[in-house]
Design brief:
five-stranded antiparallel β-sheet; elongated; alpha+beta; 2 helices; about 190 residues; minor pseudopilin epsh fold
């Protein structure tokens, strides 16, 4: 039997083949599609950046509140354990571990200090990029019984309220220190 004759493709077959060939060569994205995606990413980033900065500032304030709270509790425990007064004082500079009792600023960090033995128990340093205010500027002294003294004078006890808030304040914290040295913190809104 002779070989069958080849048939020429019909016009419908030619159209299907041309569509197939066009799809085979279409890899990747067009320039217009890429520009649209880049514009969408730029718009989303512009909307998210201010929220991220606020979130970062609030996280720094939260972190400093937790650090200050932990240092106050540690100072109280050390005062009771040693049965001698223990100070929580602001540092005079970030690199110099000396109490700054005259012009106290908590932005440089603070330390737990035992005046009787001149021992530095622990030093706390805030993040270098922290633009957070901590008020009031006060020297805290825990007596040997764990009570919070007013300054360095004996038998005068007081309570303190610290306010910790970022410079672009949306939310701050209030750290309350009672006469017995107990601490509580609460979130506060900024004016």
């Amino acid at each position: 039997m002779p070989a069958p004759l080849k048939q020429f493709p019909s016009s419908a077959d030619k159209i299907n083949m041309s569509v197939y060939h066009c799809q085979a060569y279409q890899n990747g994205f067009t320039m217009v599609e890429m520009l649209i995606v880049i514009c969408i990413i730029a718009i989303m980033s512009a909307l998210a950046l201010p929220n991220y900065q606020t979130l970062n500032a609030n996280n720094n304030a939260t972190s400093l509140t937790v650090q200050l709270n932990a240092s106050l509790r540690l100072a109280k425990v050390e005062a009771i354990r040693r049965n001698t007064p223990v100070q929580v004082c602001a540092l005079s500079s970030p690199t110099n571990y000396v109490c700054n009792n005259s012009a106290i600023t908590w932005q440089n960090g603070w330390m737990i200090y035992v005046p009787a033995t001149s021992e530095v128990v622990k030093v706390f340093k805030p993040p270098a990029t922290s633009a957070i205010s901590i008020a009031p500027n006060a020297l805290l002294v825990f007596s040997g019984t764990g009570l919070l003294q007013a300054g360095v004078g004996p038998n005068t006890y007081t309570a303190y309220i610290f306010t910790i808030k970022p410079s672009s304040c949306t939310k701050g914290y209030q750290l309350n220190i009672g006469l017995g040295g107990q601490t509580t913190s609460a979130s506060v809104t900024c004016p």
